[in-house]
Write a structure and sequence with these properties.
There is one protein chain. By secondary structure, the chain is mainly α. Helices cover about 75% and strands about 0% of the residues. The chain contains three helices and no strands. α1 runs antiparallel to α2.
Length: about 100
């Protein structure tokens, strides 16, 4: 229990850093694949449906992948440092 509570601030920090990394990666991929510096926003008239939806799908995929990688690496590093895995065992997840 204490191990999980101590991990929360670290997990929050890692989440913020992961979000910044994901945003940077998405922008680089978008620029390389389209040649455009600006990324599509649903309200931007100059982008069509295809670009807006492709941009959203790419953004979601990159964000989800980076978040999972950062979360997993953070949890594994925390366990190496403390000997405690920072989340509940699977059997406790089903009860809540």
């Amino acid at each position: 229990m204490i191990g999980r509570l101590l991990y929360r601030p670290l997990g929050t920090l890692l989440g913020m850093l992961g979000g910044l990394a994901a945003s940077s990666i998405f922008h680089r991929i978008w620029k390389r694949s389209t040649g455009r510096d600006d990324t599509p926003d649903a309200s931007m008239e100059e982008y069509g449906w295809r670009e807006v939806l492709a941009g959203a799908a790419l953004h979601g995929a990159v964000f989800g992948t980076v978040k999972a990688a950062v979360d997993r690496a953070g949890a594994a590093g925390y366990r190496r440092a403390t000997g405690v895995w920072p989340s509940k065992p699977r059997s406790q997840h089903a009860k809540n």
